[in-house]
């Protein structure tokens, strides 16, 4: 019938077939039965990419392995390699599945069905592990048997002859179908020149030989099916003759598949991918752009299959080379680069979400996916060509010449990769220092008493987004730093962390602590939004103060009203800084702050009865600091105003404040009053600050923070920004978190002083050596 294999090898091969059957049932159920897939943990990539080719290749290999076991003439080595290939594909899918389970992907959809699927995955994993153990023992047993035969041949006096002499192999004695027989000379190189181990290994069949080679998978499967069908009467014999013709002409002919293995792999992968695309089109459909989706799915599916088929054919020899042409010692660099580009496609596809997050390039369309895949493929091909070029050059000038572009590419890839990882690494705001936990709630309010002069369309009432931080009675899961469209507040790309990885210390909708709490109205700088001062707001709230953070609509780079993003306008965010001094924009911002202080008194819900707005303090940064001073000047309830590195503008500069004020600045910026102006801008700032202080009757607390710059007073200090770019981002050499801690401590001390009668903010060289008085 066929060649006799050791029982241990046949047993291991049947185990692999059983594992393939179990996997096929599992993969079919979790991909094709919607009722099951809807509850599975593995509904997304990279599982989808992995299973897209394993669910085809595993049953195909399992079936071919079963045919060869039943009716073929396989060598033991072929059976073992086939089993290992099946096991590797099953293991790849199982690993992807278990990662999804460990991450609890779609855990809210699991239910009882999902847990049963996880149990089924555990059964499959155990079966794969048992199959791997059986294959390992079979490999060890077959190796021991072959070595035993080779040693027995040595003891009977067999020797390896020198020169080009050889003895034709006997297939019945050939243990692995390689054309070699233990104890018979086939070598063309003197055994003495290679050592006894090489001679024994060669006689054991581990070195390939030409002349009467074993059948490859394609012809053995065709032969086996033909032998089985030939027993089924006239139709069976006709089919057997047809299969023989396919084997002789289609597979092994002059222009057959065996001579064009790569073309066969490409066309076969395209055909299968096209078939799957058609099946998906008939089932779930291809969306609004079916042609583009069909082309993309077919191309990507073919690349995924090809990336798996090429190494499988190289390992198993599905179509084994049979001509007399010498096997090239090494593939050309372009051929290797081509395969690297193809193999990069499934990798880019499987991890497109992660790669898109690292590169700040969300893959939201077929076009963006195509560009991402193309960039990754070109990069993989370029690196392969350069690496092989450097490795294969023997002369050092050529190596050095190729090493330069390789080093540049690696440096660029490494830098982008490093920035990408830092871009997505979680970061936390500095912890609040007060005794209260912190809650947070957001409101969209409309001031029906004002027509918005900054709106793009005249006649609209002024709308504001106001975030409120408050003392909470209990903790919980921290609220996202920038939910929804608020994530677009920052546009640094890879040069800063994603806002959705920044962790806060406030809980959305937490119960309010017992009691009534004084109010601070917080205004950001021009272009910024209230959420970008979360660290300061959380610290104030932890000390028993309600904070209403106002985002100035049409002035902030990103505002979100009623769930929709709102962009700035030229009137709200003028490009000419001189327009900030004309008073019109300042009047709008000051009115925004006073409106928030009035409106929060009438707020309902969880905050009702907990806000004491009879005494209000205004705090602002940059232009928001000027607005805070002006709002305090116009509001009789104001008991104090804090200006964080903001140039004073408006009538308050001439009339001054009766309430206390905190001027917190950076060394030499003239805002706190300590500077020697050297240009017109700083002379203007010094004059405005001096006029404000001279006209004010209330106390002024003036301090500078050494090492700080303009944006160290914001949450920018908690963002990741490469140190080399701190100057461009107006961040000073002080540690970002440290700058926030110092700022929060002095603003909180000032707020407690004016709202609760606490001690005033004072120098503390032991705790805050960075703070110096402005003179």
TrEMBL record:
Any Gene Ontology biological process: lipid catabolic process
Spell out where the chain crosses the membrane: 12-29, 49-71, 83-103, 115-135, 262-279, 299-319, 331-349, 369-388, 400-421
Organism equals Actinocatenispora rupis
Q: Ranges of Low complexity compositional bias? A: 191-205
Molecular-function annotations in GO: 1-alkyl-2-acetylglycerophosphocholine esterase activity
Record protein name field = Alpha/beta hydrolase family protein
- What keywords tag this UniProt record? Hydrolase, Lipid degradation, Lipid metabolism, Membrane, Transmembrane, Transmembrane helix
Region entry Disordered, spans: 153-215
Matching entries from Gene3D superfamilies are given as: alpha/beta hydrolase
- Which spans does this entry mark as compositional bias, Polar residues? 156-165
């Amino acid at each position: 019938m066929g060649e006799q294999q050791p029982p241990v090898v046949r047993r291991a091969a049947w185990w692999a077939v059983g594992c393939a059957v179990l996997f096929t049932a599992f993969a079919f159920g979790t991909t094709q039965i919607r009722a099951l897939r809807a509850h599975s943990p593995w509904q997304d990539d990279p599982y989808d990419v992995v299973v897209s080719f394993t669910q085809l290749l595993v049953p195909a290999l399992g079936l071919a392995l079963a045919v060869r076991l039943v009716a073929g003439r396989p060598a033991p080595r072929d059976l073992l390699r086939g089993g290992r290939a099946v096991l590797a594909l099953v293991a790849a899918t199982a690993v992807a599945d278990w990662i999804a389970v460990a991450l609890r992907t779609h855990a809210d959809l699991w239910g009882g069905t999902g847990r049963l699927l996880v149990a089924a995955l555990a059964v499959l994993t155990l079966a794969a592990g048992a199959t791997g153990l059986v294959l390992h023992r079979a490999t060890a047993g077959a190796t021991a048997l072959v070595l035993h035969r080779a040693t027995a041949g040595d003891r009977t006096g067999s020797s390896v002859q020198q020169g080009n002499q050889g003895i034709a192999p006997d297939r019945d004695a050939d243990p692995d179908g390689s054309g070699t027989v233990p104890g018979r000379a086939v070598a063309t190189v003197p055994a003495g020149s290679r050592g006894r181990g090489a001679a024994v290994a060669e006689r054991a069949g581990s070195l390939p030989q030409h002349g009467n080679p074993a059948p490859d998978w394609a012809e053995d499967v065709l032969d086996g099916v033909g032998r089985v069908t030939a027993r089924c009467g006239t139709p069976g014999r006709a089919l057997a003759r047809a299969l023989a013709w396919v084997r002789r002409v289609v597979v092994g002919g002059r222009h057959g598949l065996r001579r064009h293995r790569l073309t066969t792999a490409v066309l076969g992968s395209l055909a299968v991918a096209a078939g799957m695309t058609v099946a998906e089109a008939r089932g779930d459909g291809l969306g609004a752009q079916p042609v583009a989706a069909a082309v993309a799915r077919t191309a990507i599916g073919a690349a995924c299959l090809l990336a798996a088929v090429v190494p499988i054919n190289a390992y198993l020899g599905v179509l084994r080379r049979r001509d007399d042409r010498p096997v090239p010692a090494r593939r050309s660099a372009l051929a290797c680069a081509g395969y690297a580009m193809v193999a990069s496609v499934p990798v880019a596809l499987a991890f497109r979400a992660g790669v898109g997050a690292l590169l700040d390039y969300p893959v939201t369309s077929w076009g963006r996916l195509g560009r991402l895949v193309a960039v990754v493929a070109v990069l993989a091909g370029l690196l392969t060509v350069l690496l092989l070029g450097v490795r294969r050059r023997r002369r050092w000038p050529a190596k050095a010449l190729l090493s330069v572009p390789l080093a540049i590419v690696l440096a660029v890839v490494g830098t982008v990769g490093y920035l990408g990882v830092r871009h997505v690494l979680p970061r936390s705001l500095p912890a609040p220092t007060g005794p209260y936990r912190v809650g947070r709630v957001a409101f969209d309010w409309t001031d029906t008493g004002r027509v918005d002069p900054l709106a793009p369309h005249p006649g609209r009432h002024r709308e504001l987004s106001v975030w409120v931080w408050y003392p909470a009675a209990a903790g919980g899961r921290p609220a996202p730093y920038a939910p929804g469209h608020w994530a677009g507040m920052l546009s640094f790309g890879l040069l800063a962390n994603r806002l959705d990885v920044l962790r806060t210390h406030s809980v959305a909708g937490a119960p309010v602590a017992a009691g009534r709490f004084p109010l601070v109205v917080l205004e950001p700088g021009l272009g910024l939004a209230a959420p970008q001062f979360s660290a300061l707001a959380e610290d104030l709230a932890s000390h028993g103060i309600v904070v209403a953070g106002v985002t100035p609509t049409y002035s902030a780079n990103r505002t979100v009203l009623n769930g929709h993003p709102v962009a700035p306008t030229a009137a709200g965010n003028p490009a000419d800084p001189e327009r900030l001094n004309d008073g019109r924009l300042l009047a709008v911002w000051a009115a925004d702050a006073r409106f928030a202080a009035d409106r929060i008194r009438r707020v309902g819900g969880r905050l009702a009865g907990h806000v004491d707005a009879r005494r209000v303090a205004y705090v602002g940064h940059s232009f928001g600091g000027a607005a805070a001073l002006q709002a305090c000047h116009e509001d009789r309830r104001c008991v104090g105003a804090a200006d964080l590195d903001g140039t004073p503008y408006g009538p308050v500069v001439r009339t001054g404040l009766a309430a206390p004020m905190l001027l917190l600045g950076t060394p030499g910026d003239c805002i706190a009053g300590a500077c020697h102006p050297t240009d017109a801008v700083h002379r203007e700032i010094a004059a405005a600050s001096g006029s404000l202080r001279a006209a004010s009757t209330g106390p002024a607390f003036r301090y500078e923070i050494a090492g700080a710059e303009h944006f160290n007073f914001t949450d920018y200090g908690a963002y990741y920004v490469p140190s080399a770019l701190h100057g461009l981002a107006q961040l000073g050499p002080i540690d970002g978190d440290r700058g926030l801690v110092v700022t929060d401590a002095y603003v909180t001390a000032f707020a407690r002083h004016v709202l609760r009668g606490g001690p005033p903010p004072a120098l503390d060289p032991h705790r805050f050596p960075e703070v110096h008085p402005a003179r």
